[in-house]
Amino acid sequence: MTASPNSSCAPPVPADVVDAIRAMNSPVIISHVVPDADALGSSLALAGSLQSDDCRPTIALPIGSLSQRLEFLFDMVDVPVATDADFAAADGFVALDTAKKPRCNVGKERKEGDWTAGRTLVNIDHHATNTCFGDVNWVVGTAGSTCEILYYLLRAMDVTITPTTASLLYAGIQTDTLGFSLPNTGTASLQAGADLLAAGADIADLGERLLRSQSVSEFNLLRVIYRNTKTEADGHIAYSHANHDEIHDAGCTAADIDDQISVPRSLDGVRLAMLFTEGHKGKTRINFRGSGSVTVVELAKEFHGGGHTQAAGAILNCPIEEAIEQVLPRAIEHLKHFPP
Length: 340
Ligand SMILES: [Mn+2]
Fold this sequence. Notes:
Elements: H1 15-22, E1 27-30, H2 37-50, E2 58-59, H3 71-76, H4 84-89, E3 92-96, H5 108-112, E4 121-125, E5 136-139, H6 146-156, H7 163-176, H8 187-198, H9 203-210, H10 216-227, E6 230-232, E7 237-242, H11 244-249, H12 262-265, E8 272-277, E9 284-290, H13 297-302, E10 306-307, E11 311-316, H14 320-335
Parallel strand pairs: 1-2, 1-3, 3-4, 4-5, 7-8
Antiparallel strand pairs: 6-7, 8-9, 9-11, 10-11
Helix pairs in contact: 2-6, 2-7, 6-7, 7-8
The protein binds manganese (II) ion (MN).
């Protein structure tokens, strides 16, 4: 694909990122744990685009990583999942959409050790809290998604954007901006979206799968989230929760938890929303969302988490009730910094 006529909004692509990726012949492409459409879309798009006689990329995706909703993205390209042998033989790594190294979805055992072992790690992300843990880092905190940045990278690399690549990238751009509706939507997001449509992205199919349909188990989990939603601080805070049994009784796993935060967030008047879930027994994951002027990344950081200014997360090693007891009073305090 040639450069679009309107290139003014595109972020400048650092040459060292292009050079580092071009130098790899057997990279493992990595994204974050509990990969969302931006993580999966960007990993699969990059891996698929790099495939050639000289380059055999694999993608890090430990068993149990894929949500029911996003399985179809994985099925769109024929990229092998990285085995132990692939990790051992890799001549480099590309981490996408991942704010810090411990969030890399490389599997529990590998995480404890020095899995890069001196090999080049390229880190491409749009989380402002990114710790720049790579040897080469490209963090665009103003970008709506990693897929958006990756589109401009592939374009700078003169890679042909196939309709499949276009759909994968569009999936991440569309979901991370909530359909181009969040304040992180920039002209670069919309330009990338338009270019990808022109390159063959199947917007209607993606919309159907990502926005307008859900499995019975996802639907059943939503019943739980609606039922458990409570409000605090005169209705300015809403939170919900689902424990391990509730998640599994619905037919879901930890991999299926993410978008349900939209339930407490959607309540009229809510400025700070939280979702407490126990996908793994004894561990409570918390999703934070802020609306209007309310930012939540500082709140997530209090609990050793991170993310974006208005969409962040943290994990506490305790049951849900205990997590709520710890976090709720802090959230109420935190909200006082943002007078209505
Ligand atoms: Mn993202």
